[in-house]
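Exercise 4. Each item below gives a protein and its sequence. For each, produce the structure-token representation.

Item: Oxidoreductase, short chain dehydrogenase reductase family protein (Levilactobacillus parabrevis ATCC 53295).
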Amino acid sequence: MGILDKMRLDGKKAYVTGGAQGLGKAMATGLAEAGADVAIVDINIAKAQQTAREIAEATGQKAIAIKTDVTDPEQVQNMIDTVVKELGGLDAAFNNAGMCLNVPAEEMTFEQWQKVVNLNLNAVFLCSTAAGRYMLKQGSGSIVNTASMSAHIVNRPQPQCSYNATKAGVIQLSKSLAIEWAKKGVRVNTMSPGYMGTDLTLNSPDLKPLIKTWNDWAPLGRLGKPEELQGMAVYLASDTSSFSTGSDYLVDGAFTAW
Ligand SMILES: NC(=O)c1ccc[n+]([C@@H]2O[C@H](COP(=O)([O-])OP(=O)(O)OC[C@H]3O[C@@H](n4cnc5c(N)ncnc54)[C@H](O)[C@@H]3O)[C@@H](O)[C@H]2O)c1
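Answer:
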């Protein structure tokens, strides 16, 4: 069997949180194109259903939508149970939903801080451990958490201390789980995108005016496209990444390299 056959995901079952749009939608599409059945997990159920329909039509794979607020422990456990029941198992978990607030630290309320920590870090803990409990029993599985280049550098000029802190936390949490579960067949990695063209950047009134500045500083001179994460997503979900665990994969067009 050649390497491209080994990278195929036929028979595998995956979910992607924040999968209704942006990077999550691109990852879910890539996984389905490679042969996986996918669940689009999102708080925005109308958009998740639309995305699931599009993916099913384009790829012929099973694609379902599950309404979940990933910051709620009970909803997260229900989501895992639904994935297993509806798709027939769980092999790859993509915990990707996240948000950014651009508020100077000295003006940030505790509520604003907590909102970002809840979605970007607490929800990743809830989803990773709920998926992990199922995968540990099964003796196999790949968990991929979306961090960011902001785990490695402090973005400028926009202030975003809560985002940067939570994304660094996602990497250390994921490495810790990877070590705890290394001998039990469950792999945990993070993907760290650079600036990508999604709603989060293109339609944010705070961030949109900064895109030209970021592009001037970017070695490639442009934002990443969501589909430029698909290859990494398929690699990490597939068995070809069997020696990859506890790692962070930067996909940032060398933004953090200089
Ligand atoms: N866009 C970028 O430049 C960039 C760069 C690095 C990392 N990231 C990270 O990638 C991930 C996806 O970013 P994106 O740009 O696609 O974002 P996006 O804002 O376009 O999409 C986020 C999705 O998450 C969903 N969501 C929000 N709160 C939720 C909740 N409580 N429960 C379930 N779903 C919820 C939203 O409905 C939406 O569909 C995030 O973790 C983000 O921090 C993005």
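Check: The beta strands are 13-17, 37-42, 63-67, 92-95, 141-146, 186-193, 248-251.
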